[in-house]
Amino acid sequence: MEPANILIIGDDHSKTEMIKSILEELTQNVITCVSGQDGLRVLLKTEIAVILLDVNMPGLDGFETAALIRKNPQTSTIPILFTMEYDQSELNAAKGYPIGAVDCIFTKIDPLILKSKVKVLVDLFNYARQITIQDEQLRRQISENESLNLKLNEVNENLEALNSIVINDLRAPLRHITDFADLLKKAGKDRMEGKMLFYIEIISTTAIKMSNMIEESLRFRHAETGV
Questions:
Q1: Cβ neighbours around 20 below 10 Å, total
Q2: Are 220 and 190 contacting, i.e. CB atoms less than 8 angstroms apart?
Q3: Of the four listed, 67, 74, 76, 127, which is most buried by Cβ atoms within 10 Å?
Q4: Rounded to an integer, what distance in angstroms lies between the CA atom of residue 187 and that of residue 125?
Q5: What is the pTM of this model?
Q6: What strand order describes the sheet that includes 80-84?
Q7: Where are the beta strands (DSSP E) in 57-116?
Q8: Alpha-carbon distance 167 to 163, whole Å?
């Protein structure tokens, strides 16, 4: 499966680069943006697994950006991790959770904790993505099977119609062969050689066998279809 996209939004270049270098160890694709506006533009055109969002940004701050992310149906379910200062932790965490933050990361970042938290969210994203792919494959397979069944039914109907035509078209000629063979036997009983009568008898017997096979086929079809 291709790497998931992790989006870091923050105007503090040194902090953003530090977070990026830590998360790149997860072998995922890390994207950085310097403002909330830039982050929103990326979200509109890129599938993102998790967002790390700096609370303190000029202009559109982290809380306002998060609120806009949650408003958009296309991005409303993406998990958000807020990054914030220690001295603001209680106030900002209290503001962050109601607008959709799943957790908070403080300025003094522990790389192991950061990677663990992000990895869990990426794993959940990949699992959901795999389920979606499997669901699409299953739907496609069901659709292909339904289409194949329709074609098979059409072929069976055509074969049944052809079978009916062939059977009915053969009945009359076979009846004529049997009748003419009987006439030949009667008319030539005293005038034909035994060998010739033997051949006529074979023709008559073969025609009768074929007629019986046709009648048996018709009885079987009637038992199967009621027609």
A1: 15
A2: no
A3: 67
A4: 91
A5: 0.57
A6: 29-33, 5-9, 50-54, 80-84, 101-106
A7: 80-84, 101-106
A8: 6
Tell me the sheet residues that pair with 98: none
Task: Give the H or E element holding residue 202.
Answer: helix 194-225
Distance of CA 134 to the CA centre of its chain: 6
Q: Tell me the pLDDT tens digit for each residue of 106-124.
A: 667 788 888 898 998 899 8
49 in Cβ contact with 125 (< 8 Å): yes
Token pair of 208 as six digits: 């009768």
Tens digits of per-residue pLDDT, 166-189? 666 777 777 778 777 777 777 766
Give first-to-last CA distance, the chain, whole Å: 55
Per DSSP, the chain holds a count of helices (H) and strands (E) of: 6, 5
Token pair for residue 210? 């074929």
| The length of the chain, given as a count of residues | 227
Beta bridge partners of 82: 53, 104
